[in-house]
UniProtKB/TrEMBL annotation, chain A:
It comes from the Eukaryota. It comes from Spirodela intermedia. Gene3D superfamilies: Cullin Repeats (1.20.1310.10), Cullin, Chain C, Domain 2 (3.30.230.130), Winged helix-like DNA-binding domain superfamily/Winged helix DNA-binding domain (1.10.10.10). Residues 499-752 form the Cullin family profile domain. This is Anaphase-promoting complex subunit 2. GO terms for molecular function: ubiquitin protein ligase binding. InterPro entries: ANAPC2, ANAPC2_C, Cullin-like_AB, Cullin_homology, Cullin_homology_sf, TPR_ANAPC2, WH-like_DNA-bd_sf, WH_DNA-bd_sf. Keywords: Cell cycle, Cell division, Mitosis, Ubl conjugation pathway. Belongs to the cullin family. GO terms for biological process: cell division; metaphase/anaphase transition of mitotic cell cycle; protein K11-linked ubiquitination; ubiquitin-dependent protein catabolic process.
Automatic annotation (TrEMBL), chain B:
Transmembrane segments: none annotated. GO terms for biological process: anaphase-promoting complex-dependent catabolic process; cell division. Residues 44-86 form the RING-type domain. SUPFAM superfamilies: RING/U-box (SSF57850). It comes from Spirodela intermedia. GO terms for molecular function: cullin family protein binding; ubiquitin protein ligase activity; zinc ion binding. InterPro entries: RING-box_E3_Ubiquitin_Ligase, RING-H2_APC11, Znf_RING, Znf_RING/FYVE/PHD. Gene3D superfamilies: Zinc/RING finger domain, C3HC4 (zinc finger). Pfam families: zf-ANAPC11 (PF12861). This is Anaphase-promoting complex subunit 11. It is found in: Nucleus. Belongs to the RING-box family. It comes from the Eukaryota.
Amino acid sequence: MDADLEALDALTEGNLQQIIESWECFCTGTDSFLSGDLSVAADSDEYAASVRALSHYGLTRLVGDHFLQALEESFRKNAVSKFWKSFNPSSDKTAASTVSSFSNVISLMSQEGSEEMLTASLEEICMEKVYQEKLLSILLNSLLSEGDVASELEDYISTLLPRHQLMVSSVLHSTLPQPFLGILRLYFRKILEELSSMITGECEDGYEASVDSGVGFTCKSDMASRAGAMEIEEVYDQSVTLKNNELIKNIGKLVRDLRSLGFTSVTEDAYASAIFSLLKIKVQYLAGDDYRSPVLESIKEWIQAVPLQFLNALLGYLGDSAGHEDSNSGLKSPLASLPTCYPGIDMPSEELVRWQLRLEYFAYESLQDLRIAKLFEIIVDYPDSSPAIEDLKQCLDCTGQHSKLVDSFISSLRFRLLTAGASTNDILHQYVSTIKALRIIDPTGVFLEAVGEPIREYLRRRKDTIKCIVTMLTDGSGGSATGAGNTGDSLLEELNRNAENQESADYDDDLVTDDKQAWINAMRWEPDPVEADPARGSRNRRKIDILGMMVSIIGSKDQLVNEHRIMLADKLLNKSDYDIDSEIRTLELLKIHFGESSMQRCEIMLNDLIDSKRTNSNIKVSAAKATQIDAKQDEGDMSLEVFDATIISSNFWPPIQAESINVPVAVEELLSDYARRFHEVKAPRKLLWRKNLGVVKLELQFEDRALQFTVSPVQATIILKFQEQASWTSKNLAAAVGTPVDILNRRISFWVSKGILVESPGSDSDDHIYTVVDEMSETNRNGLAKGTLEDLSANDEEGEGSLASVEEQLRKEMTIYEKFIVGMLTNFGSMALDRIHNTLKMFCIAEPTYDKSVQQLQSFLEGLIAEEKLEMRDGMYVLKR
Amino acid sequence: MAATPELFLLITCVNSRWHAVASWTWDAQDETCGICRMAFDGCCPDCKYPGDDCPLIWGACNHSFHLHCILKWVNSQTQPHCPMCRREWQFKA
Ligand SMILES: [Zn+2]
Ligand SMILES: [Zn+2]
Ligand SMILES: [Zn+2]
């Protein structure tokens, strides 16, 4: 402005006159230019002269600014309002309400030819812009033809074109109607869908369709060579020609127009969001609710086939995919490490690589979210669902959002599994599946730890947990209550088999081993955690994992081993044959995992069975010889032929509850005969009968049928008493059987429930009368009919086993500490559980060392409360006075 | 007791098979072996299985030990005597 003012001071009258005339000429010229009359400029130099004159007087800036302003006014008045009108048909006002805008968009886009309309309007407004640029260049030429132009003016002049560009874009932005972005987005979406169905649909429908559709594809592949129509390469072969596609050309032109109007980022947003929303739909579609096939690869393939091809073609058309020419400089780290190739794209631009990373990340995240939301079902379905798990692993490896998985899965566990209605077996099965599945996702076990803790905590509160775990580990048949696990195979067996398989073949996936697979395997490899025992291979660690996590529910290996011993004892004592093959197998497996010395006692128990079988047959042989010699067997007596015995080394068996009974005389005779013969064979060893233990098979004859029962000796003795007498009072029967009345009443209920005996009140209120059921009476016949199938087993009485339960055993072991605990409480008044536990640990270091868990201590203290020795006040234990 | 004939219906057992359980014992006077301090009905520290594999043996003095324990003891001495009563050790006939 300074220059202008100085020039103004030096003006003469004549100068002034010339300035005014030139200005008028300039203004009229400009107006007529803008009204479309280019003749002014073309024909006469008058316009140029006036511009030069004004410039000469230092009014260059005035001229330039005025000209730009005129362009803006004209642009607003003529082009803009017309342009927007076509996108806002319902209302002429640019600020259309948001509510209606969406439906406008839909209605606009659903109209036939809406794309043409968009293209045409864009073309029109671009032409207007180009026209204005042409005018501007005429002005610029005039200004610059002055001769030597001061450098600062030159700078000013050079800003005019950019200022015009800015003006155009800011005018358009400031008047942008709401629906426009939506229209753009839908436009791209429509084009992409078209492309997608063109590319992916092609390989399904065959080539004929694509050739006929007139999209301008040149089909390179030989028609004969495409027997396998799904070959991805072929799709890519065709996609190469996408650049020449009409569709791409149209989009390219549109994008270029939009860019020239200053809508570069708006446009990119529009096609980006179209691509992402289409990708999301594709992911949802491909993922579905099918967890049994992998989808990640096909998602990635689709990304390669559709959006990346589209982007490549588009960027290529726009000519700004730098990578095509200056290749190596643009190729930095992220791509160099990626093994993916871009089929049909020789050298991807950096821009394209960025796009690929964005799209893949988005796909990973979308798939991951879908799978996490369904993780519970997926794990229920494991191992059939392992493809979904593998996918999820890859997704999480990329996004690192494992914590999302943990949070979501824990809440679905709490909601669906850790409820009173779920059986302990079901919870354990899901726990094992969870371990197996998450171990794939997270080999370090960090997240598994977090997910497993609520399950473990819940299971610790259930009483039957240890029993269920042992059953699950060792028993293949009866383990799964719901039949969820594969029957006939214990968990130990499975763990062992897996370990063996892994030694021969590293991965038992059914994927073909090609280079890609090798690469995936390489990516899967994880170093052993630092804390892992180097002596154990990583494979061994895998195997230990599940077992370790099972043990961690219980608290210690010893408790599990102990529970197994108790259950094994129960099983062995209820065997009527000596068949222990599966028990031996289980023992061998347990030895592998828990060490030989832990299993020593179980080994002796099994050995007892083997010895018993041998001794039993020896005794029978000697008995048979004896009868041949004597030949004086009383008929009606039972012979040793129908008698077997299991002889145990009681020091190595769990404590056994002794229940004395008076077995039938015939049996009693057999027992002493057998014992005598044992003593003969094994002198100086002797037998002590555990009369309440064992198994008796009975066949009872009724009027029209015989029924077989497998029962305990007590139950057998009871029912055989009814051979002598049809009716017994409970007191008399108890005396005859040699058992307390309450036990008798409990045991006899089996026969009542089977409809063999009937109970009626006796003379005394606590005496009952048991009578053999009269088969002829209708009511009882029904009762009997229900349970008459061949073998009615009595072994499933509710936990009334002859072996001391774990709790009872624990109680025995804990009783030693009772006086310590009482002493502590006398001194300290009241103590919390933890403090009692720690104090015991500190002081009971001599034999017997205190080695119990807090849970065990707690259940013992609960027992003391029940016995009214202690009481609980505000969470503290105190002595009861 | 006056009763109708049906009340005298008895159980008839036509077949039975009895599988009994017993525990064995060496029937020694003491609970534990005076040499290894392990239970007689268990086994000596060198053995895995009790019973036939690790028998008891009686001396002339009527003291009993695990066979393996007393053999070790006897072999370690020039003039073997019973660890319990110090009398000269002789196996009971
Ligand atoms: Zn000994
Ligand atoms: Zn021995
Ligand atoms: Zn002696």
